[in-house]
What we know:
heterodimer, B: 3-stranded antiparallel beta sheet
Amino acid sequence: MLLPLIGILVGIIVGVMFPVKIPVEYAKFMSVALLAALDSVFGGLRAGMEDKFDNVIFISGFFTNAMLAAGLVYIGDRLGIDLYYVALLTFGLRIFQNLAIIRRYILKK
Amino acid sequence: MKIVRQGQIAIALVCAVLGFMLAVQFRTTQDIRASLPYQRVEDLSQRLQETEKERDALLEELAKLRDSLTETSSWETQKIKMAAGIVPLRGPGVVITIDDSKRPAKPGENPNLYLIHDDDMLKVINELWAAGAEAVAINEQRLIASSEIRCAGPTLSVNNTRYSPPYEIKAIGSPQTLVNALKMRGGVVETLQFWGIQISIKPQEVVEIPAYKGTFRFEYAKPVENGGK
């Protein structure tokens, strides 16, 4: 459980150190991609607890989810459909679901 | 507590990316919050009003202080003040009104030619000084040594105040000389009128020119000791 926490800390430190800035127009894409990443992490944790973890599925899922989410938002932006909320809702729901399952596993010991 | 055995490293890696994204996103959101549109408009306009009030009060104080100085001044200092432009002046002179051309631009022609620009104004002003004008003002802005005349978008900036056409130039000097200098053959007025720019020159017995209302700032310049000898 420690390694992921170290990973997130390292990521935050690197992000703070690097003066990378995202233009305001793209902040929306970034936020969706962020949510997708969060979802992947929770999904991965859950899979790990269920002993079903697969490296390839996890990594590929992480990237495809993030890309797809950002792409969906982009297309929605172009078409005037707020697909942003679709991605938001889906990932949000899944995060909560995964979190609930993880919690059960942890409590059951 | 159940320990996640598998995929620790992969999850850690993804977590690192996630952390990076979090930090970047956090900073971006911070930037958006700090940007102008997100600050409350009322707050800004209130601040503007306060500053304007303060400015007006300070201007009044400045005028009062300058007035109190005038009472105890000799002819020499009075002359210096007149030249510096901090006292309103009155005398014979001309009033010139300049407006953009009403003539429509021909196709393919630069429409800018039919508008008044800073260089047109500068030419007129230059001609006035050359003809012995003693004081010049554009739309109530007294021209002093450091006055700028500059295009600011569609407006003209004089003494950091913006004006849109028509512009009124007042000059004190010999009315006849001033008028003749401007209407000189091949002179400024002829050139401007060629483009249809409306320019009217009225010689007047009494022209009143306001004082310079701004302040003088000397951040870098210092007087030389011993009067520079």
